[in-house]
Amino acid sequence: MEDFNFDTVQERKNTNSIKYDFAVARGKREGLLPLWVADMDFQTPPEVREALVKCAEHGIFGYSEPQAGYYEAVCAWFSKYFGYDTKPEWIVKTPGVVFAIAVAVRAFAEKGDAVMIQRPVYYPFSAVILENKCKLVNNPLVYQDGKYGIDFEDFERKMVENRVKLFILCNPHNPVGRVWTREELERIGDICLKHGCLVLSDEIHCDFVYAPRKHTVFATIKPEFGENSIICTAPSKTFNLAGLQVSNVFIQNAKLRKRFETESIKTGYSQLNTMGIAACEAAYRHGSGWLHRLKEYLSENIKLVGEFAERNGIKLIPTEGTYLVWLDFSPLGFSDDELDHLIENKAGLWLDDGRMFGKEGSGFQRINVACPRSILADALSRLEKAITGK
After folding, report:
1. 229-233/247-250 β-pairing
2. Which residues sit opposite 205 in a β-bridge?
3. Cα(329)–Cα(365) distance, rounded to whole angstroms?
4. Nearest to 205 by CA among 45, 15, 368, 42
5. The domain that contains 134 carries what CATH number?
């Protein structure tokens, strides 16, 4: 297996990078070390870069559609690593998972209908629901003894009281890092079936799960779940391809798929990005070795953050999945504004304030550890000095 070097620091400034080039535009000061938005500071696998070079050298970028090899690569990946045996006709291609969620909200919920989420959760969920004039119903996750769980009684009660039409599941969960167990997912699915609620499962982080946890694709638990769900996936997080705008949405139920496709057509969207097609197929065909080494590297980065947290009286929520670490700063006694000031103005860092994921995120910060260890060590050193005053 090739010895990939994730320690190499890649220069990302002046590359139109949201992460590195838009601090001032997003209300931050210039020069902050960014560990916020969920993209990685690692080059994508060599085979993906080679596929993109080949595509670029051809020099023609006309309208494109994936051919059989694309579907074979995508389906084979999910079959091999998750036991999810899909069919090419189940795949609806979109430019991103958030786009897919927005399409689903419009396709399966009318204005005023209730859509449920579990805060603290990825903030575009709330925006998509509210901007489409739907009612946001929150089943807040239960935070107890440094771990997160689900209040199933609250989940079912609110589903019934609000006649929830669509539930947006986040698994692995962003930002709290939970990988829901098969038993938890089954209980969720049974409640949704009982009350006629469709499940949209955002599984974009499915490839970043750490032992002993294993990712369970929601649709694989019971045949009925496959018929009552929309499974959102993408190579973007796994292989650092977000800018190429390609995702694969699995919809087994033909009637649901037709409604989703019809709503997508209304947006005017049709073909995928030409480069994205090439990158996605190459990643799923050749990227497994790179990903294996990357997960080993990320595990060590997560361990480094854990050691920092323990030294400084901060609670690290167990990171079962994703490369986004959820830190509970509340033991330090800072207000949210004081914490933001310390992080930005004293440590010179750009992290994600937990409040953006809902009020349940108060006192928390999300840190992206998908970067060379030297960058992470620098960030943690800055933060430790800011906290201790040493």
Report:
1. antiparallel
2. none
3. 7
4. 368
5. 3.40.640.10
Cα separation, 46 vs 388, in Å, equals: 42
Regarding beta strands 142-144 and 364-368, do their DSSP bridges make them parallel or antiparallel, or are they unpaired? unpaired
pLDDT digits (tens, 9 = 90+) for 283-339: 999 999 999 999 999 999 999 999 999 999 999 999 999 999 999 999 999 999 999
Tokens of 356: 């953006």
**Domain-embedded: residue 7:** no
Contacts 24+ apart (CB under 8 A), 23-29: 23/350, 28/344, 28/350, 29/344, 29/345
What the block records as the tokens of 194 is: 């009982």
Q: Which two tokens stand for residue 82?
A: 């998750």
- 205 and 322 inside one domain: no
Question: Residue 246 and residue 267: Cα distance in Å, rounded?
Answer: 16
The boundaries of the domain holding residue 345 are 18-44+288-388
What SS3 state is found at 143?
strand
- Residues 256 and 324 both lie in one domain: no
